Amino acid sequence: MVRYSPPVNRDHGRAPDADLLMSTVLDTSSAVPVLTVTGEIDTLTAVRLDSALDDAMRPGGPGALIVDLRGVTFLASAGISALVGALDRAVDRAVRLRLVVDGNRRVTRPLEISGTAGLLDLYPELEDAVRAEERCGEL
Amino acid sequence: MTLAADRATPGIVRQRVRRWLELLAWPADQVDDIELAVNEAVSDAVEHAHPAGADGGVVVEATVETVPGDGGGRRARLVVRDGGRWPGTRPDGRGLRIMTATMDEVGIHRGPGGTTVTLVSAAVPDVPPG
User: Fold this and answer.
1) Which of A28, A105, B13, B111 is the most exposed place for a label (fewest CB within 10 A)?
2) H or E element in which residue A41 lies
């Protein structure tokens, strides 16, 4: 099942194209759910990323989540905070959180210079994250 | 340019700064870095500098200057000004870390009339002739 998160109107009537800035799609058709994030993550959109990550890691749900960031074209500190917040939640809920970046410099550069890259579990390709999950033997 | 203290403003500034630098044939990786830095400065201005309900704009000035000395080249100078007061504590220092890592110089001046953040980019080569 592919669930598209419709733009939630939490931005209190900001610019009309704000929702086009970033989109998230949660794919739960395989054993490990994949949240695909596309577009720009900044102070305007980070709140939606945060709730999409929270929804994808519901307590009692799957023990893993892969977040595909290959289509992210901008990552601000607000977006990094959302990812770090998701990591904290993942630890609390015993969910393995794996991020796919594929050398996307617009993601890796801000993660590295903000000192965050080492905190997160980063994978070059989607298959690498899936394989790492398979090795956990809980599929 | 003067913009509203709105959460959509950082995106507008990013787009304009990117277009401006691309017209100046700025190296792509440097455009990304300047976009990261100016976004953090403008986001801070929007998020922290205005008490709830207060009306205030954010002013962004962008200029290109010649680097003095033998090395030559050019660099971008961006000044982000707001009319509010920066709170004493910040929720996290990642924004500042991003600015200092991407820019040659970051200056923050807090005054009674507001906060001014000055960003000076790394030097890049002059546009090749022709």
Assistant:
1) B111
2) strand A34-41
